[in-house]
Amino acid sequence: MTPQELAAMLMAARKPAPTIAEMAADMEELGASLPMPEGVVETPRSLGGIDGLWFAPEGSDARQGCILYLHGGGYGIGSARSHRALTALIAQVCAMPVWSIDYTLSTSRPFPAAIEDALAAFEALVSAGYAPGSIFVIGDSAGGGAAAAMALLALDRGVPAPGGLVLFSPWLDLTFSGASHRECGPRDPVVCVHSMTMMRESYLRGADPASRHASPALADLRGLPPVLIQVGSEELLLSDSLTFAERAGIDRVEVTLEVWPDMIHVFQAYFPHLEQAHHALARVVGWIAARIA
C-alpha cells in the first residue's frame, strides 16, 4: 500500500467530532487488528506500583538494557494493550525487552499524573537493576511528549537521565503555536484540531499549556540525553518536532530529527502496510545500538 492510499483510507474512515470514549474504542480495535510478531514473549508486569506489559524477544540479553515505552492517545486514551503489536515489534527488532506501561489517563487524573507515572516507571527499572544509561524511553504522540517531559522532570529532581529518548510524532507543544497546526491539519488523516483540543482540555484542566512539563518544545532543554525524533511531513504536529529540535540544538542537546516525506502521524504503527515503517524502526535499532551504555 502506498502512503497516499493509506492516508485516503484513514481519512475516509475518520468520524466527525468523535467523543473521547469513541476514540478510545477505535484505538483499542485498531490495536487488536494488528499482527503480533513471532518470537516475542508477552507477560503482565508491575514495578513500583505501575502496571504494564513486558515484551521479551527470545534470545535477548536483558543485561544490555531495556526500553520503557509510553503509548500515545492524547493522554486520554490508549493502553499498553492497544499498542502491543508495535511494542512487540520494537522488542523484536531491537533485541531488547520493552516495558509498555499503563500510565494514568486524563479521564482519571489530569496533568501531571501521566508524567509522574512515567518517571516512577523509569525509577522502578533502575531499582530492578538496570543502569539508567541502559534504559531508552520511546514514546509516540502524547507518549513522546510524556517521554520528553519525564526526562525534564528527572532533571529537575536530580534523577539520573536515561540513555536516550526516541520520539515518534511527539506532541510537544500544547499551545498549538506551530504553523503545521494550520497548514497540515486539513491533510492529516489521523489527528484533527477538534480531537487534540478536547484531549488538551481533559489533560490540563486549567494548567498552563506553555509550562515546562506540558510543552517541552518551549522549555529549556539543557541536560537532556540524546534524542531521536521521527515525524511525518503530513502531520498536524510536525511543528512540535521542528520547534523542539531547534530548541534542543540551541541548548546543546544531541538531537537527530528525521522528517519522513509523505508519512502520517505515528506511521511506524502502520507497519503491516508501510515499508517505510520498517525502515524507520531499523534506524531506531542503529541509533540505540550506538548509545548502549
Can you tell me about this structure?
The chain is α/β, with parallel strands linked by helices and 293 residues long. It has one domain (3-13, 51-289): 3-Layer(aba) Sandwich (Rossmann fold), CATH 3.40.50.1820. Helices cover 38% and strands 16% of the residues. It has 9 helices and 8 strands. The chain has helices at 3-13, 20-33, 84-94, 113-127, 142-156, 180-183, 193-204, 238-250, 275-289, and strands spanning 40-47, 50-57, 66-70, 98-101, 135-140, 164-168, 227-232, 255-260. An 8-stranded mixed sheet has the order 1-2-4-3-5-6-7-8, with helices on both faces. Helix 4 packs across helix 5. The longest helix has 15 residues, at 113-127. The mean pLDDT is 95.
